[in-house]
Amino acid sequence: xxxxxxxxxxxxxxxxxxxxxxxxxxxxxxxxxxxxxxxxxxxxxxxxxxxxxxxxxxxxxxxxxxxxxxxxxxxxxxxxxxxxxxxxxxxxxxxxxxxxxxxxxxxxxxxxxxxxxxxxxxxxxxxxxxxxxxxxxxxxxxxxxxxxxxxxxxxxxxxxxxxxxxxxxxxxxxxxxxxx
Length: 180
What we know:
The chain is of the alpha/beta class.
């Protein structure tokens, strides 16, 4: 399965790199897509270069869209192309959003009747059931609570895309790696 993570300047680094690392360890095909162009800078000043520009990227070949949180969510919420993309993935494919990013789904009405999580103070009445845990999967929507949840969120995505066996194999390599 092909995955794309979409970021604008101000993304939360942990919330991006946790899932990126888990998916790469699992051998999944992942593209890092930047709205500003060929680089993107996180809220703490870490810049990722050699990324794929959002303009012209073919999302039709992607099975899962990942959106990290961070202050960039405010830019994403004003970007009609991103909002249309979120709606398409929530209705037809798999979407994963963590921390502030699930509020984008909530404001679009995509969490109605769904179990979800998000950064606690950003939870509004989205018409679904807020679950106070690190990662929540409800059908094709995966949500994560906060930067502290980035590993669990990454594993939830990995399990959804590659199955429990693959997720468990990566968990074992992360948590129980031999010292030999």
